[in-house]
Amino acid sequence: MSTGAQEPPTEYWFQLLGPLRFWRAGVEMETGPRQQRCLLALLLARAGQPVSVSEMVDVLWGDEPTASAVNVIHRYIGALRRLVEPDLAAREQSSWLVRHGNSYRLTAGPEASDVVAFRDLVERARALSRDHDYAQSLELYQKAIELWSGPCATDLADSGPATAVFSSLNRQLFEVAMEAADLAMRLGMADRLLSPLRRAASWDQLNEPLHARLMTLLHEAGHRAEAFAVYDTLRTRLDEELGLEPGPECRAVQQRLLAVAPVTAEPDTDRRESTYDEVYNPPASVVVRPAQLPPDLPVFVGREDETDVVTGLLQRRREEPQAAPLVVALSGMGGVGKSTFAVHLAHLLAPEHADGQLYLDLRGSGDGEQSVSTGEALTLLLHSLGVPAASVPEQVAAQVGMYRSLSVGKRMIVLLDNAHAVQQVRPLVPNSAHSLVLVTSRTPLAGLAAVEGARLLLMDLPTVEAAREILLARLPLTGQSPDPAVVDDIVELCGRLPLALALVAAQMAARPWFSLRAVADGLRDAPRLEAFGHDESNNDPRSVFAWSYRHLGEEAARLFRYLSIRIGPAISDAACASLLGTDLATTRGLLHELTGSALILEIEPGRYSSHILVRAYAEELFLAIDSPAERQEAGTRLLHHYQHSSFAAHVAVRPHLRPVPPLGLARSVTPETPANFHVAMAWFVTERPVLVEAVTRATDRRFGVEPWRLALTLQQYFQRGAFFQDWMNVMSTALQAARRDEDREGQAYSLRSLAGAYFFFGRYQEALDLLEEAGQLFTALRRPEELGYVHTNRGDVLVKLKRHEEALAEYQQAHRQFVTSGNVMREVRAMSEVGHTLALLGDNEEAEVQLRSALARNDEVGNLEQEGQIRVYIGRLQTGLKDYRSAIKELEDAVLVLNRVGHRTLEFDALLMIIESWLALEDHESAWKTWHTAHELARTFQNGGTLQTTERLERLRPPENPEVG
Predict the structure, then answer these.
(1) Strand pairing partners for 602?
(2) What is the reported pLDDT for 260?
(3) CATH architecture, domain 304-458
(4) Where are the coiled-coil regions (predicted)?
(5) End-to-end CA, the chain
(6) Vertex 835: Cα angle to 945 and 722 (nearest 5)
(7) Neighbours of 670 (CB within 10 A)
(8) At CA 181, angle to CA 178 and CA 185, rounded to 5?
(9) What does the pLDDT look like over 670-691, one tens digit per residue?
(10) Which of 149, 177, 696, 787 reaches 20 to 30 Å from 645, CA-CA?
(11) What are 518-534's pLDDT values in tens digits?
(12) Domain ranges of the chain
């Protein structure tokens, strides 16, 4: 087997199919240290596809990456760019190694990479074979196999992920070698593939299907003695290394070779004229080979990940033979494409299962009484295997026995579609370790996994890209390219559900004069499910969902209907309990029933969501079945749950700073009460989108929740987490509602909080105007302490406007009011702001006295957030005094504290000042490290932070980055 790598055909040539090597301009180049070579091998194995930095880290280090792993990756990337393109200017875009966000893609084509050339040849060979050009196909197969000079990168597989990547390429070779061997046999050209197949078999000495092909080729080429020698060697090796005998496939080939001709001690000279079927298959009269699969969809697209899972399981079975068939149970909501995918997959894998394909629709998605019984199913399967009707036993147990006897040792695919329960499937599993059983069901068949060892595969919605392909593949041809934006609108309106997309395409085919825009507008304007019509075969979304709903218990059905008014993208089990007005244990049982019906999905432990069309169906039922009073009570309970839970979480986050408490709790509501700071922060992280929408929902007076009270509970989390847009949105909504209701208290609090959001967007004058109005209202309401907050906030804005004297007066006034009211925590805040402003005015000595006093006073209340803020001010003061190293130490202490309490906004400020100090010390390497930390932190801000955030970070970008190649 020669390799194209020995004589590089182009200026650049990458070899991975064997030892890793690289040529440039005809000269072989050193590819660097071991880890760099492993990285290059990974990029070559994924040629043409982006490889994320995280995957690179996994492949190079496995489960134990070093702290500097990402920086090392960037250095290797830079070195590889210079290896391939030594004349590439600094920061110039490489034409070979292209960056995509946090990923890199090697762009070598078939003229420069043996991996790409191999895949290209194989794809062309398979296409020619489908077009019945078998001779040309065999020639391309042979060229593809001859690109290999040995197993792929075996010396670089130092981690589990690396082994998986390179082993996958080797498996591709073995699969292609077997395809080519089968084709050579059919063409009577065994000699063409003998040498390549001998080499491939030597690289996987326990691969029984590969050795079975080699034995058959040797026999057909007249080397019968060598064929039996291959079998004897394989048997010895299996016995010594695994303690196993050869499997049925190799034994069957040996027996067929024995039946064709005796083996003599001398090499064969006379070739017997035998056919492929004579050697590989028993006579057709001995066995019935059913081929019952429904036709494959001619425009099937997507589901590559699911296909890879099943083919991977089959490959594992080849490598680690089992005593039972591989059973794969596909579950998912109605309309997600389980049956379509199962049929497509069965067609794809049919060539590996030469004893036939059985198909049975168990009708489990119809009414219960129409489901196929065990006796009916077994009778149909026995008939399919050639058993006459008169010979089928009457007793089910006897039918099971006959079915298992007939299926023993067979290589079959059994597709059991629309199963309702495990009991339907269990008797239909064949008695053959070489068979594949595909089961589709809306219910996850956990019992099959527990007893039969089935692999459960949840069929989720396709990705946006795959959904787009599904629609485009089915649209009628018009000669014009569809508008991508309109296509995406339709995909979104269909919720990516394959059934809905297929119905839209079918309607377009029936009405070719309709424009895509008209279809999209119709989907948007019509009631959500009405737009899909009603199929006579009950194959429309409403009919599909209705079957699952009819099988629910009364309380589960009620919860399903109530979930149509959930807030946000998902809902917790605790919120479901309040929504239904029952206890958590009961609710969890009902949720389990709903997930079992595939009407809702548990997207993470204790959180549930449902498809947009399923939710529309639930809403139809909610409006039709539940009374207006019941609907209002459910909505009230849900909003009260979020109001009181958010208040409890705020208190856990800031126990020293409680917002205005909520009004009375609705009956049968059990709020969540996070136990500590970390649990509360995690709760806010999870529920943030829900709470934002809840503020808008609360503007409906019927539910008895004042939007401003709920919005105030979110301010501290929004400020810490830099969710400034959310902060501004919810407070604008709250202020509008308070003004509508002429609620002066709500207006005052909303104005002051909204001013805070404006402050972070740099809208300083607007913030001052809002604070002026808030101050007037708090004065009229006789709230002196709240007025103190207003003075503090005004000082913050005036500092940004560099009106430092005015700011100092505001802080001093706030300090007096907090001392009077006995609010020590706010007193400390005012003290620290006074010290900071004095520093801005140049009074450094007094500023330090104030700040150190504030720090000592803060120890009395233990407010970590305030400690971080004071240390930031002290660091800023030391920076102004050019005491940069003291400043860095103080600021690093601040970062630790602020990171601990999750205050990303202040942590970001501290990091920027550390960068300034390192730059002043001309330590660019330390500056870059800190800059990258700040950059990564800013990426977690909502929308990447405000324009000010970006500008401040860019202004401090160090002049040179020593870390990135």
Answers:
(1) 608
(2) 58
(3) 3-Layer(aba) Sandwich (3.40)
(4) 874-901
(5) 39
(6) 15
(7) 19
(8) 145
(9) 999 998 888 998 999 999 999 9
(10) 787
(11) 667 666 654 445 545 44
(12) 1-172, 304-458, 464-525, 879-965
